[in-house]
Design goal:
Pfam families: Epimerase
Domain NAD-dependent epimerase/dehydratase: 91-301
CATH superfamily of the largest domain: NAD(P)-binding Rossmann-like Domain
Strand order of the largest sheet: 6-5-4-7-8-9-14
GO molecular function, one term: UDP-glucose 4-epimerase activity
Structural class: alpha/beta
CATH topology of the largest domain: Rossmann fold
Distance between the termini: 37 Å
Shape: globular
CATH class of the largest domain: Alpha Beta
Number of domains: 2
CATH architecture of the largest domain: 3-Layer(aba) Sandwich
Strand content: 15-25%
Protein name: NAD-dependent epimerase/dehydratase domain-containing protein
Number of helices: 16
Largest sheet: 7 strands, parallel
Radius of gyration: 21 Å
InterPro entries: Epimerase_deHydtase, NAD(P)-bd_dom_sf
């Protein structure tokens, strides 16, 4: 990998899976030499020439960029399932259900997507909802309603699997869990959040790390585990992908294409994890196709590489074919709330997908440099590069730093 990229992308090589429990694995510290970028040729030397799967397994057509597998065999085909996706109508998680539905359908499963609210609402005019025709044209069904009345909305149809990609608290999710149990659903999946982990001096977050007891998702996770014998929880972080309606890379593109400085809080060396949503959907699909392996597990639903905040700005600039001027600031000194001024957390916030790799045999296909190029093409295609945008908070930061903005 070119040195320009290795300065801000971090990964660890994949070795033969150990037989020891996950909890016994050493944690990667930021000072460890394992945070190094490898060339494709060096990476391939770590990998075996074949990979065999004895149980049902999702064969993804996109092999990870770190893999060099000369043969890949599957000895058992996955049972086809009827899957119900309870999908949120807002926030960044809606795109997870969209991609998951499409991947399940492409693998031969039956899918119904129940989206919160009404089909005629203004929210449905935005991505990914305005692309639900792609689900229908692939054989899926889309319905709208209140998840608390899920039984009435789906009209008594039986399902093997339910994914709740909506509720953030027990009051919202409990009715879905209770209905699913009474309706004979065999497997229950839940989209939680990596944000429930307590801060740590030893990043990355791994499954089993301490969580915030007062986080609403925690009570939901516990309730699902108490009710269902076959369940799995997925904790995502930030994501990119076509159809996402929450700004991630767009925040950087907005400034880069207008030749504006990109204000980043702190040093810019904070590590985070940004995954393409196809990684999340492939992990979910793997759990559907191998429910025994996934049962009772919590998965960090993320890619396997970290990126620094400065690195994200540089990668977005590369994708746009432009230069970038990064300025750093202390939110308190300039009088702004970093949560409102910047799309990511102003700290190390980085999880690793260890359980999915070791239990499901899953691998990441996220490739930020290439994925961001695709995202920039769509950014220009929808005309956002020409859209008038106000940068009032940015201007306050830059004025405090005495940074001149080109007119």
């Amino acid at each position: 990998m070119a040195s320009a990229t290795s300065s801000f992308l971090f990964s660890s090589p994949t070795f033969t899976l150990p037989s020891s429990p996950i909890s016994s694995h050493p944690r990667l510290s930021l000072s460890s030499s394992i945070f190094t970028s490898y060339s494709c040729s060096n990476y391939s030397s770590f990998l075996s020439s074949s990979f065999s799967v004895s149980s049902s397994f999702l064969l993804d057509s996109k092999i990870s960029r770190h893999s060099s597998l000369s043969s890949f065999t599957v000895s058992a085909s996955a049972e086809k399932k009827k899957v119900l996706i309870i999908n949120t109508n807002s926030g960044g998680h809606a795109v997870i259900g969209f991609y998951f539905a499409k991947e399940l359908l492409s693998s031969g499963h039956e899918v119904t997507v129940l989206t919160v609210g009404e089909e005629s609402s203004d929210k449905m005019k935005k991505p990914p909802f305005n692309r639900f025709s792609e689900i229908v044209s692939s054989g899926g069904e889309t319905v709208w309603g209140n998840p608390a009345d899920v039984g009435k909305v789906v009209g008594g149809v039986a399902f093997d699997v339910v994914l709740d990609n909506n509720g953030k608290d027990l009051d919202t999710v409990r009715p879905v869990v209770d209905w699913a149990k009474s309706a004979g659903v065999k497997q229950f999946l839940y989209i939680s959040s990596a944000g429930i982990y307590k801060q740590t001096d030893e990043p990355p977050h791994v499954e089993g790390d301490a969580v915030k007891a007062d986080a609403s998702h925690v009570a939901v996770e516990k309730y699902i585990a108490d009710v269902f014998s076959s369940w799995a929880v997925f904790r995502p972080q930030y994501m990119i992908g076509s159809g996402n309606n929450k700004d991630c890379e767009e925040w950087f593109f907005d400034r880069i294409v207008r030749d504006r400085p990109v204000p980043i809080p702190g040093s810019g060396m904070q590590l985070t994890n940004i995954s393409h949503v196809r990684d999340l959907s492939s992990m979910l699909t793997s759990s559907v196709e191998d429910p025994t392996a996934a049962s009772g597990k919590i998965f960090n639903c993320v890619s396997d590489r970290a990126v620094t905040l400065d690195g994200m700005a540089k990668l977005c600039a590369q994708a746009a074919g432009r230069s970038v001027k990064i300025v750093h600031y202390n939110p308190k000194d300039v009088g702004v709330d970093a949560k409102k001024a910047f799309p990511f957390r102003n700290m190390h916030f980085y999880a690793e997908p260890r359980t999915a790799k070791e239990i499901l045999g899953w691998s990441s296909s996220t490739n930020l440099p290439e994925d961001l190029k695709e995202r920039f093409v769509e950014y220009v295609k929808i005309g956002r590069d020409k859209k008038p945008i106000k940068f009032e908070t940015d201007d306050k930061i830059l004025e405090a730093l005495q940074v001149v903005v080109p007119v």
